[in-house]
Every structure is written in C-alpha cells, then in structure tokens.
Amino acid sequence: MMEPMSDQPARKPTDPALRTRVLMGGAFLGALVAMTLSWLLAWVPESPQVVAQRQAEQKEEQIAQARQEAFRSPPGSCLNWTNPDASDVKRVSCDDEHLFEVVGLADLSSEYGPKARLPDEQTWRELTEQRCGELVEDYLDGPLDPEGKLSIGVLRPDEAQWSGGDRTLHCGLQWAGPGGGLQVLSEPAEDVDQSAVWEPGTCLALVDKSVGDPTTCDSEHSYEIVALVDLADEFDAHPSEDDQMAWLDPTCAEEVEEYTGGRDVKDLADDGLIVSWDIRSEESWEAGSTLVNCKVGAVLEDDSGLAPVRGSVQEGADDADEPQDDGEQQDGDGGDSGGDQDGGDQGSDGSGDSGDGGDADGGDQGGDDSDDSGEAADAGTDG
Question: Residue 70 is inside which H or E element, if any?
C-alpha cells in the first residue's frame, strides 16, 4: 500500500553557523583583494637618487657617531685619521703617528643654562683658551708655548647638540702648520719639544707672500729649512733678541755652507737669496722652546713679503734654489743675513676642522715672519 504524499514542496534545512561563515569568508576575501589592489596602485619604486640620498644620510649618521665616540675617548688617548672629514678616525698608540691627543673635558653647564644661546666665534675662542688652557697646563704639568709647535684643539657642540643640552668641550692637543693643516705627531705630547721648528730639508709653501704648510722643494715655496740649532748650547738664560741675532748670524752662515756643500751667504745673495732664522721670546723659552731653524728664502724688493722660490740649495739637489720672476725680489747681503722671527703667534685657539660631529677648533698656527735686522724684509704669517 502506498503512503500518501504531501503536495507541499520539501524545505531545505537552515544552518545559521554556516551562513555566518560564508558571509565572513566573503568579507575577508573582499578586504584582501581591496588591500592588494591598493598596495599595487600605491607602490612606486624609489628612484636611484632617493636610494642614494638615504644611504648617504645613514652613512653620515654612522660616521658622525663614530667620530663623536672617538673624540670622547679618555684623556691620554691619541687619534689618527686620513680622510679630510675624519670619517676614518680611530684610536692609536701615542707612539704611532697621530693628529690629536685627548686632554680632557670642560663642562660649561654652570655658565650656560638650558636656554642659553650658542656662543659666537669670539666667545668660543675665549672659552677654549680659558677652559681648555687650564686642562692642558695640568695635563702637560707645565706651560704651553703660545708660539710653539703644539696648540689646543677642541671639539665643541654644534647648534643641534647645543639645543639638545650638550655643554661639553672636548679638549686636545695638535700640531697645526702655519697654513692651518694638521701635522703628524709620533710621540705623546708631554715628550714633544714645543719649539716651532722643522727638520732640515723641509720646504714651506708660499701663501699670499707669507709662509704656508710643508711642500716639496721643487714647487714654489717661501723657505727651505737648512739647519736646526739650539740656543741653549750658547745661553743659560733667555737671551735678548740682539744676543740671539749676534750668535745666530755666524752660526747659521756655517750651517748653510755645510748644507749647500760650500756655498756661503754671499754666493746665495748673488742668486737673490737670504739666510734667515727664528727668534725665541722669553715666554717660549720658559716653556722649554730653545730650538730654532736656519733657513733660506727671498724677499720682495718692496719689502711687502716673501718672494717665490723653486728648487733646493742642498748639496746634490737636482735644481738650485732660485727666486721666481713673478715678483721683484731683493738681493740678499752676505754680510747681513737678517734675523727672521719665524714660528711666532701660534696661539691656542682658532678654527680648524677635526671633522667631528660637532665643531672642532684648531689653534691659530702662524709663523710671524718679521724682519729683525739687515736685508731680511718683513714677511708676516697670520695662521
């Protein structure tokens, strides 16, 4: 017997959970598609210039951090670098070649509060001389020759660091030439003879009729160093300028003749050259600076400065030292070789760039070449 059948259509069972899952899956898929499209439409590859700029900024930040860490080394640390911006600065033994010796830190926070303005250049110089000068004198256990080889270098806060509250001077010692370039030291500062002298055979560049940093003798130069003599060999106490000149005149003449292989002062004068020397002040003498250089150069006829010279007077040199024709030079007088006060005015504050993240000041390094007698004309050097 057949069972009766309903004439109503059969209903499908409903599952609320299933419906919810379906709706959520659709929403997620739609969001994923929208996000992918948005990313694809918004992404633009960086140009090589942008990438290079970002990489350069990152490198600059890393270099600045490395420099600051190096210059914040403890007192007695020596630093050396070869790149102009000191990006490769590193700590080395003070018995090895180096450009900077760390002396100590000077805190300015008691004088300059959180809202104080950044000091101007003149104030920085005064602060460097006063605050770093005290540290240097204690560090050396004696005076710093203001006209000598060593000068104070300082790493100071730049504008951003100052605004961030940095009030610290990082003081050190360095050797800057008359042209401002840092010279290599190879022993601790306490062992350095502070006399502002150069080794025989060194030639100093000519810059605006004055003395510059060491250069090759076959290039245009102001002086060629022919001898290194010690005033202490003759004098027990600081001699007057007249006494120094009276002793150095014949002494340097003898040294020149030996250096040149027989050419005397008169021979050099015939070529338009003069023999000159350094004079030491009492302040330098008291700091232990007794060494002086004998040197050969030429002066302009109008006494306005030094004349350019090219070549060496040393025995065996390829080219003889001769004044150049681009300036009227004054003939030297063999009987009166002239005392030239070189190596003076090498102050303890100035503006060099040690290449750190902050501003680094070097010393005013200038040999003040002035006429002291006879035919040697004035030839000033302002560092």
Answer: helix 48-71
Checking phi first, is residue 382 left (phi over 0); if not, alpha (psi -120 to 50) or beta? beta
C-alpha distances out from residue 181 to 46, 67, 184, 264, 373, Å: 41, 19, 10, 33, 30
More reliable by pLDDT, 381 or 282: 282
Element (H, E) at 34: helix 16-42
What lies within 8 Å, CB to CB, of 63 at 6+ separation is: 85, 87
Which residues, 6+ apart, have CB-to-CB distance to 290 below 8 Å? 195, 230, 231, 232, 280
Helix (H), strand (E) at residue 48: helix 48-71
Q: Residue 204 and residue 220: Cα distance in Å, rounded?
A: 9
**SS3 of residue 159 by DSSP:** helix
SS3 label, residue 114: coil
pLDDT for 322 equals 60
The span from the CA of 248 to the CA of 279, in Å, is 9
**What sign does the CA torsion over 164, 167, 169, 170 have?**
negative
Contact criterion met (CB below 8 Å) for 112 and 124: no
Terminal Cα-to-Cα distance of the chain (whole angstroms): 128
> Across-strand partners of 255?
none
Q: Are 213 and 184 in contact (CB under 8 A)?
A: no
- The 10s digit of each residue's pLDDT in 70-119 is 777 899 999 999 988 788 889 999 999 999 999 999 999 999 999 999 99
CA distance 273 to 336: 12
Sign (positive/negative) of CA torsion 272, 277, 281, 284? Answer: positive
Residue of 230, 204, 236 whose CA lies nearest to 342: 204
Model pTM score: 0.71
Residue listed under structure tokens 């010796």: 101
How many residues are there in the chain?
383
Q: Structure tokens of 345?
A: 């005015």
Identify the pLDDT of residue 36: 57
Instruction: Report, in this order, helix, strand and coil percent for the chain, each rounded to 5.
Output: 30, 25, 50
CA–CA separation, 345 and 361 (whole Å) = 16
**SS3 of 65, please?**
helix
- Please list the residues that pair with 173 across neighbouring strands: 101, 152
